[in-house]
Specification:
With 327 residues, the protein is α/β, with parallel strands linked by helices. 30% of the residues lie in helices and 28% in strands. The strands form three sheets. Strands 3, 4, 5, 6, 7, 14 and 15 form a seven-stranded mixed sheet that branches. A six-stranded parallel sheet has the order 10-9-8-11-12-13, sandwiched between helices. A two-stranded antiparallel sheet has the order 1-2.
């Protein structure tokens, strides 16, 4: 038997609980992993609380991320003893996920743990940090370089925002962090933010075009914030959009795109192909300062995950939450 968070939905309602689970219940897959660390993302918070229909099969172990050691493999790419990471692929939504001590998945979903990281550090990065790196890579491919102008990061206190700031700052970019928690300004500056602006400056309906300020943007928020970020992006600048914390709508005009040549990149981390994942993790190993990663990381035990999930949704948790599934 192994411990895990188990979500059920029946005539009694929707509920998540810490349970003892029989390994025979694990879903189909050609690789079995002894999980060492998982994490709590915004999507995990939605799944555990039931505030959005993230979970589409029941019962379900939530957790879109995990890192651990292969114990059994019928996949040609993996053997017992390999250290691996999983991000996305519908795990924690349609396939049992990482908030447990064991997982069985397709070997095609796994990537190797970079030598630079422990499994704990990999989960301190998690899908949030890996998504942030995909955003940075998109801005680089667009041609943005340090010294080319300010880079706006929205939702700065969250996991994606925190890692994006740390990576961009290490690369030499001038980062402006947008947050609804100005009391966290000192924290954001320790990550590398050069300046802080309040969320309210971007969150309300704005003009089709604003003053040109941003050479590039990493947006985790969507809705009016994304629209205003695009409206304030400089000529031939780029915006990488990866989140919808404010909303899924995009109340914008075509003006930034046809008058300033702004490019909007959509960043998907869930179904990204293996080469993109490998590239992102290799760059994280090179460009993410371990000290800054440690500064943004908070550790909890598996049994605390249900309570902390609600805090994540309420915006009360900054940075990254790692879950020790064996505690």
């Amino acid at each position: 038997m192994f411990a895990g968070i188990l979500i059920n939905k029946d005539e009694s309602g929707y509920r998540a609980s810490l349970a003892s689970i029989d390994p025979a219940q694990l879903p189909e897959g050609d690789v079995t992993v002894a999980i060492e660390w998982s994490t709590l993302n915004y999507k995990d918070g939605l799944a555990i609380t039931g505030q959005a229909p993230v979970v589409r099969r029941f019962p379900m172990i939530p957790g879109i991320d995990f890192a651990g050691v292969v114990t059994e493999s019928r996949h040609p790419g993996w053997q017992a003893g390999d250290k691996v990471i999983l991000n996305g692929w519908g795990v924690g939504e349609t396939h049992w996920g990482g908030l447990a001590q064991q997982a069985r998945v397709s070997g095609d979903w796994l990537v190797p743990l970079p030598a630079a990281f422990t499994t704990r550090q990999a989960m301190a990065i998690g899908t949030a940090g890996y998504t942030a790196m995909l955003c940075v890579l998109a801005l680089e491919r667009h041609g943005l370089t340090p010294g080319g102008g300010e880079i706006l990061v929205t939702g700065a206190n969250g996991g994606v925002g925190s890692v994006a700031i740390a990576v961009l700052a290490k690369l030499g970019y001038t980062v402006v962090a947008s947050t609804g928690r100005p009391e966290e300004a000192a924290y954001l500056k320790t990550l590398g933010a050069a300046a802080i602006i309040e969320r309210a400056e971007l969150a309300a309906p704005g003009k089709p075009l604003g003053k040109e300020r941003w050479a590039g943007v990493v947006d985790t928020v969507g809705s009016h914030t994304l629209a205003n970020a695009c409206a304030g992006t400089c000529y031939q600048g780029a915006v990488a959009a990866c989140g919808l914390a404010q909303g899924m709508d995009f109340p914008a005009s075509v003006a930034p795109f046809i008058l300033r040549g702004v490019t909007l990149y959509g960043i998907d981390s869930v179904m990204a192909p293996r080469p993109a994942r490998d590239a992102a993790w290799q760059r994280l190993a090179r460009d993410l300062d371990p000290a800054r990663l440690a500064a943004m990381t908070h550790e909890i035990a598996l049994g605390e995950a249900i309570a902390v999930a609600g805090q994540v949704l309420q915006g009360k948790v900054r940075g990254r939450v790692v879950v020790d599934v064996n505690r």
